[in-house]
Amino acid sequence: MFRKIPCIRIDGSRRKPSECNAAEEMVLALFVNGRHTMTATVSPGGLREFAAGYLFTEQIIAGAGEIESIREETNRISVLTTNPFRTAGAKKTVLSGCGGSTSYIDTAKLPIIPPGFSLSAAAVTGFMEEAIPRATGRIHTAALADAGGIVTRAEDIGRHNALDRVIGHGVLSGVDFETTCALCSGVISSEMVRKCLAARIPVIASRADATTLAADIARKTGLCVIGCVSGGGMAVYANPERLNGSTPSPE
Amino acid sequence: MFRKIPCIRIDGSRRKPSECNAAEEMVLALFVNGRHTMTATVSPGGLREFAAGYLFTEQIIAGAGEIESIREETNRISVLTTNPFRTAGAKKTVLSGCGGSTSYIDTAKLPIIPPGFSLSAAAVTGFMEEAIPRATGRIHTAALADAGGIVTRAEDIGRHNALDRVIGHGVLSGVDFETTCALCSGVISSEMVRKCLAARIPVIASRADATTLAADIARKTGLCVIGCVSGGGMAVYANPERLNGSTPSPE
Fold first, then answer.
1. ipTM of the complex as predicted
2. Is B189 on the interface with A (CB under 8 A)?
3. Which of A80, A99, A152, B124 has the most crowded CB, counting CB atoms within 10 A?
4. DSSP string, chain B
5. Which of A1, A4, A8, A242 to mutate to test the interface with B (most CBs of B within 10 A)?
């Protein structure tokens, strides 16, 4: 994920040749059924999982059963699906006509996560400590956990890519997303909320906080959003009923 | 840029209602000559600068003179250009045919920044201290500086957006980019290098480091890339000859 590259270190008036650890970044073109769907800059490795997760969270495939083949070449990954007519559109945001801060994302068109699944605050803390380092400003980490513990973990220079990678692993290995919790290192944005909803993941937690729009959309769609997880502390932005094991404080 | 939203704070077994400062995030649809060009999630405010910077770094306009009008509506910004036939294509990455880690970004098709402009390491440190806070994991900051000091500064939940905002300010106010330095808080990716090249900005510096691909492309195109700026220290990844005021250390 990192590679040593040459650099010149400057410290006040001193200058000398040195080396830096730089995050690796590659350009990846994704082709679906022969057509160019998108180009992303991603970290190398685990590209099958990334492609599967992206297609799933963009609702181009409904599951692993709709993937006929995935072929990797240099800087290119080509997927054939069993439904070649469902193509990648501009689905990233569902725009509705009226004004207001959240109404341009039409929450009525997003999947709703039904009540039912919950987990303990202690479990969230445990997953976070096990899988997600504190933000380094270099690379993002995401993970997926269920009752058995951490299912998978991935790093990427982009926070959406890292989330797509762990969801893609889940798609390819048949994870039941409805009983999982997604974990990540960076800010929870509306785009990450949308990806969890597409996958029917009921809880997302982060070392960092959430945006206003992420919290608004999550509240209306049943996704539990937890930020600032550190030690035994956390802040719940939406649907706290999914988090048990804590009692309301007396004051 | 931030708004207080309700949350539930959990600390061990205690749980109580509280408030969090969340970064504001809005959905913005950009229309160029009546056509939908892209939808981004951005921080609110300064949307004219964002739109102008995006169109300039995507090479849809060559300067402010090609903007006929910019109209802001709720969650939508519409630009008319004097050249309605130059439209937004999939220009984000210039893919060439052959393999290899960087060759898929065809540096021969990217602008080259000619030698000439340089500035002192002390100036870079001064600009950084004045304009760019250390990474908070919440929001990104970018700035543009020239011999007169900081020209403009912007924050956004996305690091590319923050860079587009300061470049857009420069486009609208007639800044001569060829004698400027871009500053930012987050990792310098290949996409940020590409944006600087499109604007002919000769130096980019960050509190964080650069990716391998960013360093590779910058080396071939004359852009000076400086990372890890802190105190009087920094690491130069590409084209250190643009940075004067330091002497090689004896060893």
1. 0.85
2. yes
3. B124
4. -EEEEEEEEEETTEEEEEEEEEE--EEEEEEETTEEEEEEEE-SS-HHHHHHHHHHHTTS-SSGGGEEEEEEETTEEEEEES-TTS---S-SS---SS-SSSTTS-GGGS--PPS---EEHHHHHHHHHHH-PPP-SS-EEEEEEETTEEEEEEEESSHHHHHHHHHHHHHHHT--GGG-EEEESS-B-HHHHHHHHHHT--EEEESS-B-HHHHHHHHHHT-EEEEEEETTEEEEEE-GGGEES-EE---
5. A8
